[in-house]
Every structure is written in C-alpha cells, then in structure tokens.
Write a structure and sequence with these properties.
Elements (H helix, E strand, L loop, with lengths): L5 H26 L2 H8 L3 H7 L3 H23 L1 H10 L5 H17 L1 H27 L9 H20 L8 H11 L9
C-alpha cells in the first residue's frame, strides 16, 4: 500500500475542518450528525474520524483553528481588527466563524467537561491581545492610566458583545464608528490633542 504524503494528510484535514465549520454553523453541535458531516466534507465517516477521535475532538480542533487565526490577526493588527473583519465579512469564513463562536459560547455554559478542555485553548487569544497591548504601550501608543489586563478584558468584552449583536441578527454595517470609538478609548492621548 503506498504511503500518503504529509501534504495530502494536511489537505484532507483542512477539507474536514472547512466542511465541518459550515456544518456546525448551520446545525449546531448536536445537529451536526455524522451523516451531515459526511455531506459537508464530502468524505466518509472513516476518513473524518481517521483524523479526529470523535465529534467533540473535531469541534475543538475547529474552534482552536479559529482561535489561532484570530490570535494571528490580533498579534499583527489588534483585536479591534478582528471585529472589523467580522463586520466586513473580510475574514476567510465570517458567518461560519460566528456560528462556531456561538456554539463554543453555548457549550461553555452547558458543558463543564467542554469548559475545562476549552479553557486550555482559549487563553491564546487573551495572551495575543495582552502582548499586542504591551507592545503598543512600549511604543507610546496605548494609554498608560489603565492596566493592560483591564484593557484586555475591555476589548474581549466588546468582542463578545459584537458576537451577541450579530447572533441576534441585528445589522452590523453601521458599527464602524463604534469600533473607532473602542480603538480611540485604548489609545494614548497626547497633550494638546482633542479627544
């Protein structure tokens, strides 16, 4: 039997994650049956579960993949940019990312075991946000009268509010100025400038 290349395995894993993202966003965790996962990925259950131990492992890998993507954007451009991309639909999977994020939030409320497993993975977004803010403070761009941990919590709370807003089906096309205000709130204001 010929060996399968790592590139092929990586491509297959990406295919599973991308198809599953759509399935979980559309049907939720419980509604994403194995049959629906097969249809969404175009692969058999054997192929899917060759790469992932079970449905929860698949969902956690998907949520972790989204968290890594967000952390990368945060490290380069900040958490407000993640929110701008979500509003603009510029991210790779904006609606599907929102569905995954909402499903994570629901499971965190209702599933203590999931909460424990997710806690290990979710810290990377907080760390990326805190590190970005520290770099901005060192560069003199961040206000210095508020602790970085407080600013981190503030930005994460705004993100959660935005996710809730969009989850309720409310429009987001007029929220650009709100995100401008959020960004302005964490910036350092130099003497002689207007707020």
């Amino acid at each position: 039997m010929p060996r399968v290349s790592q590139d092929h395995l990586d491509a297959r894993r990406r295919q599973i994650l991308d198809g599953s993202r759509v399935c979980f966003a559309r049907y939720g965790y419980e509604g994403a049956t194995v049959r629906r996962l097969e249809e969404a990925t175009g692969l058999s259950r054997g192929a899917i579960f060759h790469h992932f131990r079970d449905k929860e492992s698949l969902f956690l890998a998907l949520a972790e993949d989204d968290a890594v993507r967000m952390a990368d954007v945060v490290a380069e451009q900040g958490l407000v940019q993640v929110m701008r991309e979500l509003l603009a639909g510029d991210s790779e999977h904006p609606a599907d990312w929102l569905g995954t994020r909402l499903e994570v939030s629901r499971r965190l409320r209702t599933d203590p075991e999931f909460r424990g497993r997710w806690a290990e993975r979710s810290e990377q977004l907080t760390v990326a946000t805190r590190e970005r803010l520290m770099r901005q403070r060192e560069a003199g761009n961040l206000r210095d009268d508020v602790d970085v941990d407080v600013l981190t919590a503030f930005l994460e709370l705004v993100l959660e509010g935005l996710v809730s807003h969009l989850a309720m089906g409310l429009p987001g096309d007029d929220l650009g100025p709100v995100l401008d205000l959020v960004e302005e709130t964490v910036r350092r204001h130099r003497p002689g400038t207007t707020r």
